[in-house]
Amino acid sequence: MGVPISQILLTTGFLLVLIGFWGILKHRNILRIIIGFSLIDTGMHIVLVATGYITGGTAPIIDEALGIKEAATRTVDPIPSALVVTAIVIGFSVTAIMLSFAIRLHATRKTLSIDALTESRW
């Protein structure tokens, strides 16, 4: 057969999280760090959706086509998908706030490098 789609999604999600961490730790530009946070956010969304996915599964509607006995093994869990929709909205707003802070920093300091922003005041 092949590799299940849930395993591909898990691998892709964890790979995006690792790339995001690498971007945060490696780069010194604030915009690239914000992109790293967004990659981590997207990777975690993919991982959460993949945890609720069942290959060949159906919607969690119990009727004549899907009995109670086989519902636990054949239905896709809708809770992770609902949580991811909420997390996408929260992640978008946090990214917008980070970008607005970056705009304000650039307006006051004329740079987005962390090295120029980390001087000690005392």
Care to describe what's here?
By secondary structure, the chain is mainly alpha-helical. The protein has a single domain (5-116), classed as Helix Hairpins (Orthogonal Bundle), CATH 1.10.287.3510. Helices cover 71% and strands 0% of the residues. The protein has helices at 5-26, 30-51, 68-74, 78-109, 114-117. It starts with a helix and ends in a 5-residue tail after the last helix.
Summarize the structure.
With 122 residues, the protein is mainly α. The chain is built from 5 helices and no strands. The mean pLDDT is 87.
Topology:
Layout: H1 5-26, H2 30-51, H3 68-74, H4 78-109, H5 114-117
Helix pairs in contact: 1-2, 2-4
Notable traits:
0% strand, 122 residues, mainly alpha, Helix Hairpins, elongated, 5 helices
Tally of distinct domains = 1
Q: How does CATH name the architecture?
A: Orthogonal Bundle
Topology, number of strands: 0
Distance between the termini: 64 Å
Helix content: over 70%
Shape: elongated
- Note poorly predicted spans: none
What is the element string, with H for helices and E for strands?
HHHHH
Radius of gyration using CA atoms only: 20 Å
